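User: I'm putting together a small comparison set for a docking exercise, and I want a reference complex before I start. The sequence is below, and the ligand is zinc ion. Could you produce the 3D structure with the ligand included, as structure tokens?
Assistant: Of course. I'll restate your input first, then give the structure tokens for the complex.
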Amino acid sequence: MNYQKIIYPNYIPDGRIRRLVEELLFNFNGKSIAEQTLPIPVEEIAEFHLGYSLNLDHLGDRFGFQDTFGFIDFDRKEIWIDSSLEPGVSPTGNEGRYLFTVSHEIGHDQLHRPFYDNRHIQKSLFDSEQPVDNDQPDAAIMCREKEKREPQEIQADLFASELLMPEVLIRQQFHEITNEIRRNPNRWAVEMMVTDELCRRFHTSKQAMEIRLDKLKLWHGLQGNRLILT
Ligand SMILES: [Zn+2]
């Protein structure tokens, strides 16, 4: 097999990632972001739209790195998720983290697979400079905690966040929920209730939702004990 490290871009603008998510959803069901119903069916998108098989296994044992949480093989069309994330089975598993990881792998497919598909062009461009890398088969990306801060991992996380929690839907749902409970005098309780309710509607983990709400600056509308919505 031909082994060569693919050169992925260090930077992909957020707007480009958002547009790729919009295109993916439109190609999947012909609807704009605002027309999507919740939760976004990321397993269906991976399996039936993109043609990947979704598999669970102990990836640490499988690949020899205990911090591996996901894996995508572009040639075999396989996505592997670590068993520790399996909802309802593993004590550390929950649906939010599992679906986020599936979405992260979809992100690699949408953002990075084109560079794999074009590797022959890349190879001829860089042939004299690029050493052959035997660490990783060129058809696959292994996702490890240790490499969480690598550009392609951050890009796949952002893609997952945009896919599972599209901005327009988060804003819409946020305002709907906060309107329902805007008279609650306890800001902390409001934050808890809103975040929990959003997680329930979007099928995400609390951590992923908090990161998303911070990025969208939605809490800035909450001042003191009063809800002032932006
Ligand atoms: Zn990854």
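The chain has two domains: 14-164, 167-227. The chain is about 50% helix and 10% strand.
User: Thanks, that's exactly what I needed.
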